[in-house]
Amino acid sequence: MKLFVFVLSVIFMVAHIFAQNITTLVPPPKTAYSYGELPPFSLSSQTQLILPDSVSPEILRAADYLQREILLRAGISIERKSLAAYINSVPPVQFPAIVLVPSDNAFYTVFRKKTLNSIETVPSVQGGYIADIRSREAVIMFNDYDGAFNAVATVLQLLDKNAKILPACHVWDAPDYPIRWMFSQHNLLSDNNISKLAAIVDTMIKYKMNGIQQSDYKYNIIDRMTAKYFANVDSLKRLCTARNLDIIPSVCNIGWSDGILQHNVNLAEGVEARSEYIVSGDTARLITDANVSLPEGGFENVNAQGKFPGWGFYDDCFKQDKTTFHTGKASAHATDVRTSNAAGNARFSRTVNCAPHGYYVMSAWIKTLNLQGGSFQLLAIGKDAKGASHTLTFTALDIPPTTNGWLRIETSFNTLESASVSLYCGVWGVNGGEFWIDDFEIRPAGLTNILRRSGAPLSIYKKATGFRYLENIDFAPVFDTIAAKSNGTFGPYHTPPALRCLPGGWLRNGDTILVSYFHPFTAVSNNQGNGSVMVCPSEDTLYNILGDQISRVNNLYKPENFFLSHDEIRNLNRDSSCLRRKISPAAILADNVRKCDSIIASVASSSRRFVWSDMFDSLHNAVNNYYLINGDLTGIWLDIPKTLTIVNWNGGKKEKSMNFFARQGFRQITSPYYDAGTSAAIRSWRLAQEGIENIDGMMYTTWEADYSQLRAFGYYAWGAGPYIMHRPLDSAALGKSSASLIANIASDPFDAADSIISAAMIIHEASDLRPRRIAMQRGTQQNLWTAAADLSNEDWIRYSIEATNKQGLTRQTPHYEIRRESASAAEEAFEPILLNIWPNPTLGTANCAFTAVGAWSINLTDAIGKTTVAATGYAYFPQTLHIPISTATLPSGAYRLTVTIKDRIEGTTLIKR
User: What one-character DSSP code corresponds to residue 298?
Assistant: First the structure.
């Protein structure tokens, strides 16, 4: 058989001219090669899509998607035909065809055996496929509908810019991971968000992603949604179904629980507060603690040296400014911060003594001008009687570089067991610019946002005697009507509800009373005090709300997967509902997880459940006294269902964290990106998870709706490491003392520092089944690697190519097999050519069909034996060829058409009208 010489410039020449290049596919396939000697596949109005008579609805959707995209891009409508009719057509069909063949179809073997590698099959993993594209036939082979969609995505990416030309090539491919998702927080009530998602899902399918983890806040309140919302949900479902994208809805927002609290704000996890009141005018009035104050927070005074009095410390960059202020006649002005403080800190601080369980609001007014970097904070740090420090505030203040006038910021906190508290206002790590502070103050919050339920009791005692007053008898019912309308966010400080005496009750004017009550805790609060509020997991009412939510979401999507939104839980085991259980916060939270998981299982028994990693990670938040959690979360990972899949986002300790969960027996996916603006974070996760057991995929995670890195994510989520492009050796390589092996091996296109550091040919020979390795050498052309193998004594070998990159990833091609005897037998056993030509007679172009293997030629001669048309080619395996014969310029008459294959000749008469 003719030896095929693999020359890179020739192999890729046709692809470069006519269509997209297989070297530019993203994600790159596991291996691919070009049929450089063949013309490309040209789409036209005659092109037909060949499908088996019986295929699943999902495969039909893949076909629909392919047809729709070709019509959209090229304006070509391709019709469907039966696979059986296509195979059995006599004479053979003349039109170019795209053929979809499932591996369980009876004709699968027919197409598989046409490939150059006789032992090649569709990869057995979910989503694997083969795309074999020749001049007249583009064959897509697959095991499942994921593979069909992945192959279609490759074919569409290979189309040229006019969407009419495909390069003649072969792609063998499968994903490393079955899960390749994108995290979305799009509000589906917005028509604009549906349009945005349409563009995003088109990008996702291009790069072979297959799921949207949809965290729409509205899932918490589906019962309140209008017809418009459900219409938009239907639009999203249609978009995703047509592109084989799974929708994975979020439920059970345990942590960021304001959606749940919309149903009942009093279900917030409470923190106990204790205050002292005196009754006057039938109303209890708060007795303030004079120690907890900031008397110089208006910055009206300076001493003779220009220093601000009354502060424990403040950074030297501050000066009094009497030209710019919020109220009064002055403010504190910070300039040249880095000059006076190398760390870029500019803060005021005062430490005050306090009573335990005091509830306070701290606020300030800020003005900025060209402020560069830094973190602005209102910070309270408590110290208990034993001297242990505890952070009491956790803010995420949003201060623009230049404010439009003055901006108010605030946060609330509870002193917990603190005997003193240090109060801070200012910026840490600023790089430039200037800012002003004015009216830095603290005030008692009183009964603001008081929670009212049995697990968060209101208790009032007479200070002198301990006599307990009764609600509705001694004092009027206490409710915070403003908090009730807060939708679970609670918001900034507001005037608290009044505590009033009832006529005939024991609460009377002049009484000094002690009041114990519970309020929510807002973590990572913004300028207005809004942030993360935790729901109480020990209240049975919660599970009625969650059950309703899960049922409605299940009815909405019938999803195969659910996402449990347990995440960043900052307050637990502080109200009576939790404390009376007398178990650890780990046990409380694990019980909640099991209940949530059980509710989902009750409505969707076959579903798979996913959950964020942080609250169950010993290296992350599953620790003792995390934020305001009262007690230890250690060991919680032992008490949650092992059937949950962990979504790991511990980027600071990714390798240790993934190994931790792997040792505990959990399956995982990773959650890279987080708005870094580059592919570096995605790459670092992909490299870290290499080799760890039970990793099922990756989820592109953006909090800022930045989808600019989807292309890179598609690359890493599908597969990473060397991309090996190699055309299998021809059987003529056997018997050679120096058979040439050439491969194009590409490094990571998203990592400029990556390169291929080694490559090898691994040979299994008939004479010795132990593999031998032949080191490949880097060629003169970029990415070209070569090896010379002595196959002089071999009639059969199997071989593969292995390469390693600088990132430490090693990849290997599938095995290729070549046999000397089978190749010669195919030619020697070759049957008659079965020449067909039509239409005959012809006016312009006749179609010639014959079956060939090896070198072939066509000659059209006139009555005197003069050759008028000639064509030659080479078939590397037995196949039916379809060759157009143009007679448009020939005079009318009879012509002799002959086909020659080696020493075999067959001919017929062609009549030109």
Answer: T
